[in-house]
Every structure is written in C-alpha cells, then in structure tokens.
Amino acid sequence: MATTRATTPRTDPLTTEVVDLIGTIVARYHDEYEEVATRHALTGAQARVLGLLSLEATPMRRIAQQLKCEPSNVTGIVDRLEARGLVERRPDPADRRVKLAAATEGGRATARRLRESLRFAREPLAELSPEERKVLRDLLKRMLGEPAA
Length: 149
Known about the structure:
Layout: H1 2-7, H2 13-39, H3 44-55, E1 58-59, H4 60-67, H5 71-83, E2 87-92, E3 95-103, H6 105-117, H7 122-126, H8 130-143
Antiparallel strand pairs: 1-3, 2-3
Helix pairs in contact: 3-5, 3-6, 4-5
C-alpha cells in the first residue's frame, strides 16, 4: 500500500493549493533574484555561481552539478566573473590537476550585498516565530529527502 501511495500523485484540493503556493514563492524569489543580480551588473547565473563560491572554493565540475548544467557553461560564467575580479582560479591543494574557482574578497563582498538585497524571503519569514521557521525548515528538508536539523 505504501508503494502505491508513494507513486500515485496526490490531486486533492489541499495538495494542489500547496503546490501552487510553492510555485508562486519560487517564481517570486526567482524574479527578485534576477532583479537584484541585474542591479549588481550580473546575470542570475553569475550571481548564483558567485553565491556558491563565496561559501567555499569549488571545482568547476561540482559547480556544474550543483547548478545542473554543463561544465562548459560554468567555464564561461567563471571567465566573466574572473574578468571582473570577483572570482579567481587556483589549484586544488588536494589534487593539483584540478582547478578550484574561488570568490575574491571583492566577490565575497558582492555576494554578501546580493544576499542582503533579497527581501522577498527574508521579510515574510520575519513574520514567523523562530519555532514556525524551524518547523518550515524541517518540513522543506523532509520534502527534499534531507534529514531535519
């Protein structure tokens, strides 16, 4: 019975409403992200790569996996970010054959300003109590198949 339930899509009104709400949230977040990126003279893809690299130096192949795109696309994005001084390439200390892309100090500052400019998610979340935000986080992680914190 559990197998049938897991493979049969739910089409009840509540599920449909939740799916529609998630879609609306994703669309609004995407629109704001693109708008904020443009204000920093970046494309949305460049802003996403810069955001990832501001957290840690990463091999190009892993960036492509995280963004679900071809490595050649990431190469072009990193080239443009590098030309602006936001990203640099360096050898991986664990394997000198691998190149890591890393945000420069200016790139980390730009990524921080980008994150701070995104109001859509932050402001509505401020309306929720810390407990409600934890429940929402755990439910979203559960939906993604990740362990709750």
